[in-house]
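Why run this: before we spend reagent on co-expression, it is cheaper to look at a predicted model of the complex and decide which construct boundaries make sense. The entries below are exactly what would go into the expression plan.
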Amino acid sequence: MIWLLVIILPLLAALLTAFLPAGSRNAPTIFIFASLPAIWTGLVEVPEISLDWFILGTHFSLDTPRRIILLLTGILWASSGFFAGLYLKEDARNSSFYFYFGTAMAGNFGLLIAADAASFYTFFALMTFASYGLVIHSQTHSARQAAKVYLVMSIIGELFIISALFLAVQSAGSMLLADIPPALASASNGPFIFLLGLIGFGVKVGAIPLYFWLPLAHPAAPVPASAVLSGAMIKAGLVGWMHFTPVGLVTWPSFSLLIVSLGFTAALGAVIIGLLQVDPKTNLAYSSISQMGLMTAFLGLGLYGGFPAGIILPAIALYGFNHGTAKALLFLGTALPAKVGGYWRILMWLGLGLGVLAIAGGPLTGGLWTKYLLKTFLGKTNLPGIDFFSYLLSLSAITTTLLLSRFLHLLGQVEPPKENKIPSFILPWIFLLFAGGWWTMSPTLLSSELMSLIIGEESMLSFFWNPITIWTALWPILLTAGGLVVIFTLKFSFLNRWPQEKPQIPAGDFLYILLWLWRKIEKPFQKAMASLQSLMQSRQSAEKIINKFIDNKKTIQISSSAEALLRRWEVVGISFFIFFLTLFLFLR
Amino acid sequence: MEMNSLLLLLILISSLIPGIVILLLEEKQVLARNFLNLFGAIAKVVLVAWVFAGYLRGESYTFIFGLAPDLTFALHIDQLGLLFATLSSVLWLVTTIYAIGYLKGGKHQRRFFAFFSLCVTSSTGIALSGNVLTFFVFYEFLTLSTYPLVVHRGDDKAVEAGRTYLWYTIGGGTVLFLGVVGLFVLAGPIYFGQTEIIASLAPENGLQLTIVFFLMLSGLAVKAAIFPLHGWLPISMVAPAPVSALLHAVAVVKAGAFGIIRLVYDIYGVQTSEQMNLLTPLAIFAGFTIIYGSVKAFYQDDFKKRLAYSTISQLSYIALGVAITGVLSTTGAIVHLVHQGIMKITMFFAAGNVAETYGYYRISQLNGIGRRMPITMVAFTIAAFGMIGLPPVAGFVSKWYLGLGAVEAETYWVVLVLLASSALNAAYFLPIVYRAWFCEPEPSTIQPRCSGRWETEALLLIPVLLTGLFSLAAGLFAASTNSPLYFAREIADRFYLHLP
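The model came back. Tokens follow.
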């Protein structure tokens, strides 16, 4: 029953909040309640069930990685829903926002608990299309553009996903998602199916080269929607990948190398473009691409063989958990600087700083431990060039710190309010910060056996308080911070030339290259389409030939005289009779 | 006469008698007419449900009347026919309600409702017919009884459309007739399901049987609107909305598709058609029609025209599913017969509601219509998502089975066709959804024509709501034992029963 509540409550919430009278204060409570079953199933083991009558036969169950992501998703939707109810109180169209918010929530929860292909796809589509309403909510020109790009990319993604599912279900001979990875490992077209899934879910993850909608759409949505888009929904793509990746069952060196390289390219490349942005939310969106790149890389590592899926996937999910909570904290935080005054600003900056540290992998945060967990895999594989990738991982700590320092810098430029006051929506933000008790100690979400399997002999406690671990995490951050301090105190001249008003590279960078290419080929393409169209309309087309015959003068003459009769419906009635009579006689 | 045979006749009579009586009524006798219509429609639904329940209990229903030696008028119930009969009778009831609301105060209602009832009689007749001859009789009866509905408005455009309609369908009927006669000459009388007759003839009369097959197929393809025989469908959109909804989304076009299913599975049989390689041309034409219809739909601004081209495209899903050998794709084809019907009728109802209430006929006028007519547009949106193939709407289920079937048969180009069609469906349906929900309405002085409590007349609103809910429920509960999918699966299983 609780499985159904996970989905039904958000849907109910969507309907309830959509019909709330204007000025009602119930939306926050409704959204919190709606996410409670999801959080509950994330925490407590619930026996799996199958519903034979639902869609094409539905199964609900959870495994460790999805349980971690579900918990994250539940926490984020609860706090963002709480936030949205307060933040959008005055918004004229808030009821439509709540509707799409609740629906996307149902989809997001549903896809995590679904264990069969059809309902997984159902909920994935529900989430994707409902969040279109979130992206376009402000209805400004830029939001419409972003929503358009989002929709087109999502549909392309859906098409790849459905074709991957067709092939995978057919070769697995089962609707269960758990049967897909073994089937891919043994089927001859397994790599091809995997590639389809990689592209399909890559859109949602924001993988290179499919990411360009993300820095447009995530910031275009209102603050609470950005938080769930970048914190929770992006992980849905990751979960999709996990379903389609035969980790531990195959050795696909070229795929492995390709995905690891793409992942690290995203991790480092997104930082460079993100640094040149002037909107804090866009900056965060690029940071999401960069962080997802790291998760991509480790998933790719799993394809090289050597690690069972039961070990590496929970570790990646855990990294996602940490990133999700921290990223949502930062996204929600972008609404604060203009509203929070007085001493509360200290708390605000502390919280934001903590979020930044958590993403950059600072000491004593979940970021450090989850990254360290992943790092242990680097030491155990013999993928070619792995040393180089280890360096890149350390480098990514530096670049992440840089990128998020820029984020803090951008927020610092926001004019603080004159009076000493706080907005009501700081409450959910603080809630998320304290739910940060989770993300600082997030490895505790894994069972201790699993932990010792991943990190070797060490016990949990020695892992947490190991000075060497802390130092390896600390030096990149200290180095970057030190560097920044030097640069800012010496006032290097390039600082003045840093983009202030307009980003040097527009958000959605790659899209503009595509659009440029499109403009190059647009004219010939349209010409071809026009000629195709005229071909269809030409005299030679079948439709025309038949119509021409019908429009022929003689035919018209004959038929119109016949028609004069037929137009009188009485005649039609008689002709029925005659028709049957003839038929009868003829057949006799 | 036996009770069970009588029931079959009653199903036909339940719409035939009201049709005839309505002709005898005066135009002014609105109440009596509406009562007759609804009585007939409800009676038909009840009777079909009764027969359905009986069939599930294991009763058999057959009515045979000898016209001449070897020529019989035969009605027989099997699952496929029952599915189609249920579809047409339920949708007839819904459409009758809609038509009463839509035509209120219009002219020539007597004629309209009389022929409307005759149409439904013939489409149920098609569903219930037990042999080729009976099928053919009702098939032609349908052609003729639809004509007065197409020309209902009576203006030049309508008359011209009627002319085109007749040319296509009579032409198709003639070709079908040749095929039927050829079949009779070759194989004698064939009852549906006697596939062994053709199978035994196949080794010696291969060429003749091939010719007969394609004659019949091309006759049926006219109504199923397979390229290049689809031209009548968009032109017939001049008919009033209920006609477009029931006849051009369900009854007429489905008669063609249903005929193709009968031809392949119940006359020739899967094995024979497969061995004689009859299905590949059908697959190619159907695949091309799917893409062609979608591309054409994309360029239409007229709301109903866009729906019409979309119908052309979606109908060929059925033909395509039939043309691919395999239980899964057959299931997809049969279930799409139902699913396409309920989804497309929803869309036509919605288009009719918008036109009737605000006088909008073009898609470019639909900005912000969602806020003015929320229930109508919610139903439309559900149906549009279904057409694209998005879960959990009915269309997803069809597409899922067709896609799996194509993979099973290793005809990968079909998967590509399905994907391209999904993309195109999205490209021409989502703009409507976008305009309806996310664009600000242009400030205009157009006032809704009805000033009731709801967004439009209740009689127009209830049908669209019902069929919208059907479309959602058929997908949401597809795996349950009462869904169209369940029956489609049983039917398909039976077709492949004799295969090794």
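Chain A touches chain B through 56 residues (CB under 8 Å). The longest strand of chain A covers residues 49-51. Bring this page to Monday's planning discussion.
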